């Protein structure tokens, strides 16, 4: 096994934590056939290696950020430079360099449409190498899942 691979026990840990990130190590260990201490060590190792993050995922609507959108951005020049500038913007949840219609995709959450317009005008359209943008406002989030990679 190379340093980037995970074994079946690690996959079981990830699956269990995707379902409930607050599991006690004793319960987690019994679910995957480990002691409490061994489960704690495995979770620590997975976290240290960047395989998992254990965080609280907030519902943007319930915390006052009901406007969500994906922004498709086309740039002239180095997409990496633009992506790094965009990654520094607090409202941007994801910044992805992409292949296809857009050079960069950015997911944003905002308080209202005026806030969305302000964020786009101040943080995207002011970058000199941004050639164009398309804002795709979410009408309804049908599915959001974090249960991947362990099947």
Strand content: 15-25%
Indicate the low-confidence ranges by residue numbers.
none
SSE-based structural type: alpha+beta
For the largest beta sheet, what order do the strands appear in spatially?
Answer: 2-3-1-4
Tell me about the biggest sheet? 4 strands, antiparallel
**Distance between the amino and carboxyl termini:** 18 Å
Number of β-strand runs = 4
Give the rounded overall mean pLDDT: 92
Radius of gyration, CA atoms, in whole angstroms: 19 Å
Number of helix segments?
A: 5
Shape: elongated
Order of helices and strands: HHHEHEEHE
Helix content estimate: 25-40%
Characterization of this structure:
This protein has helices at residues 8-19, 25-32, 36-48, 79-87, 113-123, and strands at 67-75, 92-97, 104-110, 130-137. The chain is elongated and about 55 Å long. With 151 residues, it is α+β, with helices and mostly antiparallel strands.
């Amino acid at each position: 096994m190379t340093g980037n691979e995970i074994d079946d026990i690690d996959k079981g840990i990830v699956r269990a934590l995707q379902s409930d990130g607050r599991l006690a190590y004793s319960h987690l260990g019994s679910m995957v056939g480990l002691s409490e201490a061994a489960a704690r060590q495995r979770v620590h190792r997975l976290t240290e290696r960047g395989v998992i993050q254990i965080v609280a995922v907030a519902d943007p609507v319930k915390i006052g950020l009901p406007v969500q959108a994906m922004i498709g951005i086309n740039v002239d020049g180095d997409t990496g430079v633009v992506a790094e500038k965009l990654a520094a913007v607090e409202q941007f949840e994801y910044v992805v360099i992409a292949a296809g219609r857009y050079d960069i995709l950015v997911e944003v959450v905002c308080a209202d449409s005026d806030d969305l317009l302000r964020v786009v005008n101040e943080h995207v359209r002011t970058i000199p190498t941004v050639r164009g943008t398309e804002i795709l406002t979410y009408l309804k989030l049908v599915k959001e899942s974090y249960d991947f990679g362990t099947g």
